[in-house]
Amino acid sequence: MTEAVYKLALGDEYNRLAPELRDYFALAPGSGMYGIGQGVFDVVGCRQKWLRPLLALTGHEQAFFPEYGEGIAFRIENHAHIDPFGRPALTARREIYFPSGTRLFHDTTSAIPVSGGGHRLVDHLGRYRRLVTDLEVSVTPEGRLRGVSKASRLFLGPLRLPLPAALDAKAYAEQWWDEAEGKHRIQVKVIQPQLGLVLVYAGRFDYRLAPYLAGTGAGLPRYAGPDRWEERV
Q1: Which of 57, 136, 144, 217 has its Cβ near the most Cβ atoms within 10 Å?
Q2: What is the pLDDT of residue 64?
Q3: What pLDDT is stored for residue 217 in this prediction?
Q4: Quick check: 132 and 232 in contact, CB under 8 A?
Q5: Long-range contacts of residues 85-90, Cβ cutoff 8 Å, at least 24 apart
Q6: How high is the pLDDT of residue 58?
Q7: DSSP bridge pairs for 60
Q8: What is the pTM of this model?
Q9: Which residues does the chain have with pLDDT short of 70?
Q10: SS3 157
Q11: What are phi and psi of 81, to 5 degrees?
């Protein structure tokens, strides 16, 4: 069985995560299990009304969306697998239940070997995996997982378009275990230098593992996969 992508990226630092987070991020390809989370976002979406029409133009990409809400139910599935290019990967499929309809938001995080040993994480976002970003992860003194997106690029057909710093949106994520509530907590902010806060979601959820049904295999189910894979990083 291949190691979990976050274990590969964090190395020995992984052991400093809170025990509940170690369990959450331990899902590995070949385990025969997938993760199911259900909870409520205290806030989710784009707070800036003037920006929402622009985000509506990219809604079909299933990476950003124009809605905003508070107290919004959601569901996440985590699937550990080997991507079509032989890399250990974790695909997250989120369903966000806005009053106006359900939004899908999904991505695949792959572990890429680096020279000298170790791995780095590369995140492919959206329905067509056209937006790609480097993901730097670390563990806080409190045992939380912190993630910060770095350089991003767009893949449009044969073109590879690195986004300059002045245009690139940065994601800042933190996940932790709330001992008092007995739930997982997550907070994510996506900030673009010219536009400000583009996307935010923060909430709490319960999480469990479930076995894949017999005969379906233990890879990525077809409904959870993207419409197109992108090999380039």
Answers
A1: 144
A2: 87
A3: 54
A4: yes
A5: 85/229, 85/231, 87/111, 87/112, 88/2, 88/3, 88/4, 88/5, 88/8, 88/28, 88/29, 89/5, 89/29, 90/4, 90/5, 90/6, 90/27
A6: 84
A7: none
A8: 0.94
A9: 1, 214-218
A10: coil
A11: -160, 175
Give the residue carrying structure tokens 């509530």.
Answer: 181
DSSP H or E stretch at residue 163: none
AA identity, residue 83: D
User: 66 and 49 in contact (C-beta within 8 Å)?
Assistant: no
| Location of structure tokens 């690195």 | 162
Q: CA torsion, points 150, 119, 229, 93, in degrees to nearest 10? A: -80
Q: Do β-strands 68-82 and 101-113 pair in parallel, antiparallel, or remain unpaired? A: unpaired
Tokens of 222: 């077809």
Residue 108 burial (CB < 10 Å; 0-12/13-18/19+)?
buried
Helix (H, G, I), strand (E, B) or coil at 102: strand
Residue recorded with tokens 């991020």: 25
DSSP 57: T
pLDDT at 75: 98
What is the reported pLDDT for 122? 98
